[in-house]
């Protein structure tokens, strides 16, 4: 375990198992369709790769880079597009892929944007859901794990751009972010 990690919340094996399960579920839900899978950079990258590996329908992949946190610990409430999609959304069945829903601001912004762009359907799949953090009215269609209101990193989730490459989800030691 990494020295800055207090405890492992979700192990590599548990994540692998969950990706298989969710992939099978998405396979059923999108049978006969050609969804556009949208990864929200950068956090969604490992989860997107692993869950879609187990989603056995034809699909298209695209990416959107939206930033709401900057370098801050808490969301500023401001969402900005850093990189937009290359693909047209109109009439498409969208599957938005996220690593975590916290305040919900990132996703509520994206859902509004894709509705405005006339998507045929919009589903959200997230590996982690932190319900206690929610300020926006948004729920995911498919959730891997619920997490408590702690500072979680790893498997795509960062603290100041670090820890995304950990193969598990862990809780950060408070001293790393200047807590006690
Ligand atoms: C993080 C995370 C989600 C979002 C969740 O991304 O990956 O995308 O915040 O928070 P919210 O529900 O409060 O909006 P971040 O903006 O830090 O960018 P990153 O994925 O590049 O780390
Ligand atoms: Mn993100
Ligand atoms: Mg981040």
TrEMBL record:
The keyword GTP-binding does not apply. Its main location: cytoplasm. GO terms for molecular function: glycosyltransferase activity. Residues 13-160 form the Phosphoribosyltransferase domain. Keywords: Cytoplasm, Glycosyltransferase, Magnesium, Metal-binding, Nucleotide-binding, Purine salvage, Transferase. Its EC number is 2.4.2.8. Coiled coil: none annotated. SUPFAM superfamilies: PRTase-like. It catalyses: IMP + diphosphate = hypoxanthine + 5-phospho-alpha-D-ribose 1-diphosphate; GMP + diphosphate = guanine + 5-phospho-alpha-D-ribose 1-diphosphate. The keyword Glycosyltransferase applies. Pathway: Purine metabolism; GMP biosynthesis via salvage pathway; GMP from guanine: step 1/1; Purine metabolism; IMP biosynthesis via salvage pathway; IMP from hypoxanthine: step 1/1. NCBIfam families: HGPRTase (TIGR01203). Belongs to the purine/pyrimidine phosphoribosyltransferase family. Purine salvage pathway enzyme that catalyzes the transfer of the ribosyl-5-phosphate group from 5-phospho-alpha-D-ribose 1-diphosphate (PRPP) to the N9 position of the 6-oxopurines hypoxanthine and guanine to form the corresponding ribonucleotides IMP (inosine 5'-monophosphate) and GMP (guanosine 5'-monophosphate), with the release of PPi. This is Hypoxanthine phosphoribosyltransferase. It comes from Aquibacillus rhizosphaerae.
């Amino acid at each position: 375990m990494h020295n800055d990690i207090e405890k492992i919340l979700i192990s590599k094996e548990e994540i692998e198992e969950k990706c298989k399960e969710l992939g099978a579920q998405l396979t059923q839900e999108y049978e006969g369709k050609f969804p556009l899978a949208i990864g929200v950079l950068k956090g969604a990258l490992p989860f997107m790769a692993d869950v879609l590996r187990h989603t056995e329908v034809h699909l298209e992949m695209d990416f959107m880079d939206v930033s709401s946190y900057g370098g801050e610990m808490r969301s500023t409430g401001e969402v900005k597009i850093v990189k937009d999609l290359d693909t047209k959304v109109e009439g498409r069945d969208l599957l938005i892929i996220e690593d975590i829903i916290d305040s919900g601001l990132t996703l509520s912004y994206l859902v509004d944007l894709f509705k405005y762009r006339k998507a045929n359907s919009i589903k959200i799949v997230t590996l982690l859901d932190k319900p206690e953090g929610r300020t926006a009215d948004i729920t995911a269609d498919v959730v891997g794990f619920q997490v408590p209101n702690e500072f979680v990193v790893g498997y795509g989730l960062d603290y100041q751009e670090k820890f995304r490459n950990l193969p598990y989800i862990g809780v950060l030691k408070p001293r790393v972010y200047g807590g006690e």
